[in-house]
Amino acid sequence: MRSTFHGIEVSKRGLFAQQSALDTTSHNIANANTEGYTRQRANMQATPGLPAPGINNSTAPGQIGTGVQVTDLQRIRESFLDTQVRNENKHLGYWDAVQSGLGKLEAIMNEPSDTGLQTVMDSLWESWQDLAKEPNSLSARAVVSQRATALTETFSSIMTSMTELQTDLDNTIATNVLDINSMAKQIADLNKQIADVVPHGYQPNDLYDQRDVLLDKLSKMADIKVTEAESGMVNVTIEGKELVTGRASVEMATVKNAITGFNDITLGGAEFKPTSQGTLSGNLKVRGEATVTTVNGQPVVTKTGYIADLTSRLNKLAVSMSTEINKLHQTGANIFDIENRKTNPNAPLQGLMFFVDSTDPTKPPTDASKMALNPAIVANLNAIAAAQTKASEGNEAGTSFEGDGRNARDIASIKFHVFTSTEGLGESTTLDDYYRYSIAKLGVDSQEAQRMDKNSEILVGQVENQRSSISGVSLDEEMSDMIKYQHAYSAAARVMTSMDELLDKVINGMGRVGL
């Protein structure tokens, strides 16, 4: 026959188990708005039963229940959804970075607008047409000079802004690397804390949550793979290379390349180039990559990427425009040439270039950032060669006269000149069409990036919602559980009260006959 104290023990276990469940529910409610928190559940199990002792013990199987115990505090989390979120996160991080960078490029180009490069180019061609009508007009020449200066300043401003954007992205990449390095160290530190307690039978659920939040953030930065390790730890690889192994992390850093001017990324001291997606890869795509080759013993840097491609096209546009205008301007006659040939028909032409290199006015511009109006023309507008020296009606070969605007007319017609694929632009097109295509390509790339970013955001949202439906805290559900555990606790307390009354009768009420 069992002891009366058995009922006290059973009810005590019930009280403890329901109290643990209530504490877990309280913990869930308290962390309902905590980032990355996973709801927990107190799993209960009946404790091992005892055989029913007695004088006439039955041989039939049977045991007396001994109560309940909490076996573990389980995190309600689905690892498959974690993997899905992290896989989609890298796409979101990549397209976020690309669409942001291309959006800034679009803002720099500012097309179509009344102040963009296209409008400035059109204004220059119009000024040459106006000069062809009034080649001796000082105001017409001033307009040509002003609009040519506006063109060079616009080219210079665009190139400077793109260089600054490239530098900003380079610094952003360095910051991305610092973030990845910091998160890797924190994950390794959490691994250590977890491994210190798991072998002793504890369940560090809150440490697991902190680590999962870091892994989610890290997955947006780069392509990572997470694998389980001993004692609750995880190993993390980035682009297939070890980043976190147990309690240790591999340091990621950036080193400024003296030749390319870019930050090179290293992982554990070795060169690291991300080839998959993620914020880091997206910023690299916009900033561009640089390769160094040796030509005649000298290093030659070749850059690729959105900014590098657009810069190359603008350089070709500026150089080709300068070359064509200079070609005609150098063979044309300005007012000084006309005056000289009135007395000396064989007097040499000044042959001034219209556009020159801002660092060396004796040379034509080699890129858009160094394109400048010839200082000789700025100093004296009569140096603009609006006339031609070839024969025309009423004009002998080798001479020119006031009012000849044929050269200005020919320069204005460069706008419609179709370049062959072997000329400076490398394409069969006009200057205007070449520029419009460059802007259209930028717009299409930006639109594509925005579309992919939106799609990635939707996919991440869907998977996160699925994960939240399983792992997130529902206040309604927790309140329901709280009432359930509260009633169970009250019932167990009532059982203990009943057993106490029984014991009181046995201890204090028995053996008192005759007193």
Would you mind describing this structure in some detail?
The chain has 515 residues and is of the alpha+beta class. 55% of the residues lie in helices and 13% in strands. It has 12 helices and 15 strands. The strands form 6 sheets. A 4-stranded antiparallel β-sheet has the order 5-6-7-8. The chain has a 3-stranded antiparallel β-sheet with strand order 9-10-11, with helices on one face. Helix 3 runs antiparallel to helix 10 (406-412) and helix 4 runs antiparallel to helix 6 (279-287). The radius of gyration is 40 Å and the shape is rod-shaped. The two termini are 29 Å apart. The model has no long low-confidence stretch (mean pLDDT 89).
Helix and strand layout, with pairings?
Layout: H1 5-30, E1 40-46, E2 50-51, E3 63-64, E4 68-75, H2 79-109, H3 117-133, H4 138-197, H5 205-221, E5 224-228, E6 234-238, E7 241-245, E8 248-249, E9 252-256, E10 263-267, E11 270-271, H6 279-287, E12 289-295, E13 298-304, H7 306-331, H8 335-343, E14 355-357, E15 371-373, H9 375-379, H10 406-412, H11 431-471, H12 475-509
